[in-house]
Amino acid sequence: MRGFTVVALHLLFYLAILQHASSFIPTDTKAAFGFFGISHETQTKNAIKVIWEGYFGKGSATIPSAAMTRALKEIAGANAFVDEDQINGELHFDGESFILGQQRLIDLGNWTVQAVRRNDSIAARKLLGQALHTVQDFYSHSNYLEMLLSTGAKKLVPHPGLGVEGTMFYPLGPTVNTCNPCENALQCGEGCEKNLLPAGLTSGYYGGEPAFKKPTKYKCSHGGLLDTSSLLFGSPVLYAGQGINKDSKSCKFSPHVDYHEQAANLAIIASRQYIIGVVTSKITMNQRALLFGNDLGLNSLWNDYPQWWDLVDDFIRLHKREDPSVFYRRAPMLHNAWHTFVAAKNVHEHGIALVRAMTRDKLHPIQFVKRDAEENATGTDYLGWSEVAAETGGHVIKVSEDEDIEKAADFLKMLSNPDLAEVLSVGGAAQKDDVVNYTFPIDSTLESLLFSTSGVSSFELFSPDGSRYPLDPSMNKNIRVRELSDNIALNISILVPPAGTYTVSLKCSGDYTLSISGKSDLFLVGFRFTEMRGRPGHEGAFPIFGSPVTGQSSLAEAWMHGNFSKGAFEFRAKQNKFIAEQSSIKIDSELSHHGTRFEGQSSSIPADDFMVYMKGVNDQGEEFQRALLHMISPSHVKLDLPKAEAAMLEAGKTVTIPVTVVNTGGVDDSFEIFAVDEKDVVTDVSKDKINLKAGETGTFDLTMEPAQDAVVGSNHILVSVKGTKTRGNKAVVRAVIHPPRREILESEITQRYYANETEQLIKDMIAKEEQGKLRLRSEDFIWRDGAFAGY
Asked: DSSP per residue over 632-696, as a string?
């Protein structure tokens, strides 16, 4: 009993130390319970940025567009989500799962190529991110690096067959010993550095992965204080830290901690090798641009436009129009990477909610096109489309039955300019001839300005000195104006007004919206509320599902691109009324090599809808502000469904996901439940209503089954919990559908890698590299003292 008490106190001491740790494995966010290391997110970013330089030219990595930055975060985010699954060892190459891990990488590579060829960038990025997690774990969880270094290798040479089609890995037998127990597993840095036996390629076993149970105590463990694959003194509670993983800089979680930076560097090189060799070498330059968010791949925005406009034409011409479907997919819609244009009526509220959720995911507005005459005659608001347009930073675009079609088309094209930084997005209720004024800063990083409005008969722009700024195109050739009913769009290019605080004055014809945006290399990449999740020792900050909870504080992280000297986040109402400054969300200087990243605790979440702004001073000493388009709708319900976000849906296979609901509203309530998705994958929700007392937690199941013939693609799934007394919540997750898995036949394998031949393979690669026959640029990825030193 005494021995147990001493060990328990020892463990509590370490856990107390870990409360002051720096960073975790899946994501870049710092939080308790882990020491700083080179995360999956950082590895992914550094691998991809070098590829950008090769494909899109020098400077693309240091000054990427907003779309490229967001694409990078999508891939890195999908990578981090793999750590939500700690049951299937092949996702992490745990437990000598080399055959299934290799099969996974081959499949994910093929599916990524298929998705990007179908212009499904969401699925492609998610698939690629998941594959990169498994690639990177190979070098941390196996002994490949240790074998490489033991041969005297001068460069970090990745395994040539990882993820390559037609190749297969074969593990050592279950009775082949691979590790000795560590001499002193409780004392950091002692006894585990020489625990490997010279048997061949192996990887550590991790407790809780049923398909890969440790067959003998002389097989290597993953390691760390929380790995249950290695008992300490036979105790059913505490475990030894012995093992071989190199995940972090904490020797308590990573017994081979001394190899951490080398393992991360090797994983970065191998990630680049996988991306180029398995994915981008099989797709066109435009498809590569689509995958990585480069503007080259976005010139197809209007490829589908003529067909869509024919549907809109039918809709706005009463004598031609057929009643649109009761569900959103058959309503006239152009859903693009940059904008969603909708012309619809009689669409079910579930479909409208899903379209809005999908748009939030893409961070772009909904522009709702409607016939002017019909609303004036009937008073209908088209079942919520008008409200949704305003909440997403878009507009209600009125088109009369006899409106010039070309004029309307040109107006919509003007709104669809991609990759603009939002400066101001406001809206409100007004009566005819009401005048509303808004001030906003123009800074010299803005290369153009786009003003777009709805519910406005005219507007004026006033300079900092109070004089009227000329907006007449006949007097200023760099100004272009388009008007359509009570919508006005005005673009200022080339000669943007000088830096300063300007005032825009709107003369309203009714309820109005206003968006001011521009091309700039200073932009707000993203802002999200987060929570800590993941396996102990592998925690990271993952985005919350749905909206933040009213009255509570929440972790938050954000990213700014471009140079500025100071800045702070603000919450504002849609009418631009100030709610609260978020001064506790501060710059994370340790991760500044990826641009400016913020993290911290938000103030109490307000009860009403709000927007997020960043306001500050740029490096020229000029005031600037940037906004996120979408309003945030706080909730009195907390939703939790991480397994749905991490789900890979196999065609023809049923998957059931548990969803947790917490009533935080302070009153007992009854909640209506529904779930809807793009591709009719959701087949059942176990409850259509749930009664919860104040503070009570409940659950229901979400069942999904893709069609047997489903093709690779993304699928947005919206889950809604709506209270009768309290404000409900909606969460959208992006699952990826893939074809049925197919086992690789022996006849298809042209290259076989046997674990006991790995040492000779490494020696042969080193010899080729020294002879100049193996081209490798390991110097592209350099880390010094825990920081990325450059390419």
From this structure: B--BSEEEE-HHHHT-EEETT--EEEEEEEEE-SSS-EEEEEEEEETTS-EEEES-SEEEE-TT-
Global pTM value: 0.84
DSSP-derived letter for residue 712 is S
Give the domain ranges of the chain.
2-173+251-292+750-790, 318-416, 418-538+548-634, 637-738
Max CA distance (Å), the chain: 90
> Tell me: the pLDDT tens digits for 18-61?
333 323 366 555 433 334 678 888 899 889 988 988 888 877 77
User: Cβ contacts of residue 527 below 8 Å, gap of 6+?
Assistant: 556, 557, 558, 569, 612, 628
H/E stretch holding 551: none
| CATH code, residues 418-538+548-634 | 2.60.120.380
Check if the beta carbon of residue 129 is closer than 8 Å to that of residue 68.
Answer: no
| Segment 638-655, tens digit of pLDDT | 998 877 777 789 999 999
- CATH code, 637-738: 2.60.40.10
Contact 65, 419 (CB under 8 A): yes
Query: Distance between CA atoms of 648 and 706, rounded to whole angstroms?
Result: 11
Reading the block at residue 78, the tokens are: 């999908």
Q: 512: helix, coil or strand?
A: strand
DSSP track, 64-84: --HHHHHHHHHHHHHHHHGGG
Helix axes 66-81, 285-292, angle to 10 degrees: 70
- Residue 62 to residue 46: CA distance in whole angstroms: 11
